[in-house]
């Protein structure tokens, strides 16, 4: 697959970032992703408490890792509503 002008410019800018900038950018993207997931879950289940919502977001993030998802589900059971 041939790189586009946009791909090349994006890679140039990423390569110019320091490691700290790359980590900050990654952390910001993860925070944004969690916020978007929480918003979707809140729309579907407005009755959830903030604590329950936090664990539902975690469950969604780790649903492809069965061992972690099982631990999260166990914690979610104990969260008061």
Fold blueprint:
Layout: H1 5-16, H2 19-44, H3 50-61, H4 66-77
Helix pairs in contact: 2-3, 3-4
Structure write-up:
This protein has four helices and no strands. By secondary structure, the chain is mainly alpha-helical. The chain has one domain (5-77). Helix 2 (19-44) crosses helix 3. The longest helix has 26 residues, at 19-44. It starts with a helix and ends with a helix.
Seen as an oligomer or otherwise, the chain set is: single chain
Mean pLDDT: 94
How much helical structure, as a percent, in the residues? over 70%
Largest sheet: none
How do the SSEs run, as a string of H and E? HHHH
Q: How many E-type strands? A: 0
So what's the overall shape?
elongated
Question: What structural class should be given to the helix and strand makeup?
Answer: mainly alpha
SS strand fraction: under 5%
Low-confidence stretches: none
**Rg of Cα set:** 18 Å
Provide a short characterization of the protein structure.
This protein is an all-alpha fold and 81 residues long. The protein has one domain (5-77).
Features:
single chain; 81 residues; elongated
